[in-house]
Design a protein that fits this description.
- This protein has 65 residues and is mostly beta strands.
- The chain has strands at residues 2-4, 23-25, 27-33, 37-45, 52-61.
- Helix content is 0%, strand content 49%.
Length: 65
């Protein structure tokens, strides 16, 4: 789903990247517990809007003492 960026004042609501229009692709973070730790995936919609794709992955390992 595409959504619009809030525009106007205050300045902190302004996008820091120049875009061709006001629409942005939807992003979210998916978290999954694994045997080794917490796996986080930053997900976004594909450009053709056919479904999500992982664009960044981070594993936070469990600390055993």
């Amino acid at each position: 789903m595409l959504h619009t960026l809030k525009a106007g004042k205050p300045d902190e609501l302004q996008d820091q990247i120049q875009w061709n229009n006001e629409y942005r692709l939807f992003h979210f973070v998916r978290g999954v517990f694994t045997a080794d730790g917490l796996l986080l995936n930053v997900m976004m919609l594909k450009e053709d809007l056919t479904g999500p794709q992982s664009v960044y992955e981070l594993l936070i390992p469990f600390s055993y003492q």
